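To fix ideas, we reproduce below a protein record of this kind.
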Amino acid sequence: MKRLDTTRPDWAPPDVDIETPSIARVYDYWIGGTHNFAVDRELGDRVRTGNPGLVASLRANRAFLRRAVRELSALGIRQFLDIGSGIPAEGNVHDVALSAHSDSTVVYVDIDPVAVAHGRALLADEPRAAVFQGDLHQPRKILEADETRRLIDFDRPVALILAAVLHFVPDSEHPLELVRHFTAPLVPGSALVLSHAGAETVPRRAPEAAEQYRGAVSEVIWRDTAELTALFADFDLLSPGVVRAPVWRPELGEQADPDLAMLAGVGLKPGT
């Protein structure tokens, strides 16, 4: 059996196990990131063997997020709160936002301690961005966290990002109420960015290899266009509304199969 490379790079915190697969790093591998190890890539390859549309869907979601951040930056938004962010590696929200406005600030929140540990190492020299461990189901703790208060001024517009995270929240946990806990303090002109597993794009049944991945994450709740649109209550959807991620304001030269993609949309909070 081929021995996996376990050399620890400079960006990997010393307290993080690099010999055991991490869901956060597997996801980073799938979306084309470089902050993963051979053990993560091995698991990632096994999972996607029987799920050929998985990686394309995840990458289309990240491409949508980058476009959304660029659009919102063009509208003057300079503060971004990304909940369920994963590892904030190259090409993520802070890269896009800071390239548009050097005074932008970004706060990443994730429940996975591995993602947070890697994120802190990667952002150690970036004072305009921060990452901390937080639970989506505890909005007040996230909104009042030291990192949030340091970088986010809720008297100015904020873009709240909930990308590929609400499909882990079942109806019994009232996802709309959860969203409203986060959006209530946002002033008019703020934005809500959502992407979500779409009921119209349910994948083929996963093989046994995928059980290792599914066992580490919550069950996915598939919702349709109308259900995702309902989560934008109190926000005005930007054109083209809730659509499959590659269809949301694609840029010249972008190519992705919309049949393999999540649903996505961006809304602005109205008011004077």
Summary: The CA atoms of residues 168 and 218 lie 6 Å apart. Residues 1-5, 203-210, 212-218 have pLDDT under 50 and may be disordered.
